[in-house]
Amino acid sequence: MNLLKLGLVLGGAFLLQFVLTSFQMKNFNNAFIRLRRQGRVVIGRKAGGFFAGAIVMFLIDSNGVIQKGQKLEGTTFLARVKDFPGFEGIYVQDLRGEMVPKSHRNLRRALEDAAGAYRKFVAGETIPDAPSPFQKVGKTFSRTLFKRHSC
Q1: pLDDT tens per residue across span 66-76
Q2: Does the N-terminal or the C-terminal CB of the chain have fewer CB atoms within 10 Å?
Q3: Cα(135)–Cα(108) distance, rounded to whole angstroms?
């Protein structure tokens, strides 16, 4: 009976997380749509795991110059999209992680990801989708399983 209760509690927790994360995704999607209606948008992302993840969005003009920035940063479903000022007038390819305080490690990486994604876009390269959590686990597992030991 205790195992059934534990299963119900865990199932409820997963369901609650799903619902609350859906609200966060809706907030992000609405912010993206608002930016996209104004013009071209560059996005950079860095998953956080146990640390604060980050997503940055920059509205750019036809020359790749940033007009407006927004960010989503946090470890919980309570994180919301906020303005990310200070980048207006900067060419998106010139973004560097040093432009963000060191305390925001994943925000710095998301900024660099946005610049890299734009570089690939300009060069005509395909921008790969972010790997799913299952793909990450599989990759880690296969690396561990098939690791060659040097003698």
Answers
A1: 999 999 887 66
A2: C
A3: 24
Structure token digits, residue 140: 């880690």
- pTM here is 0.73
Angle in degrees, CA 117, 121, 56, rounded to 5: 30
The continuous run of DSSP H or E covering 71 comes out as: strand 66-74
Q: What would the two tokens of residue 88 be?
A: 């207006």
Residues linked to residue 91 through DSSP beta bridges, in sequence order: 65
What's the CA gap between 55 and 32, in Å, rounded? Answer: 11
CA–CA dist 14, 1 (Å, integer) = 20
Measuring CA to CA, how many Å separate 33 from each of 39, 41, 122, 146? 10, 10, 22, 43
Residue 135, amino acid: Q
For residues 91 and 12, what is the distance between their CA atoms, to the nearest angstrom? Answer: 46
Q: Which long-range contacts (CB under 8 A, 24 or more apart) does 90-97 make?
A: 90/65, 90/66, 91/63, 91/64, 91/65, 91/66, 92/42, 92/58, 92/60, 92/64, 92/65, 92/66, 92/118, 93/64, 93/118, 93/119, 93/122
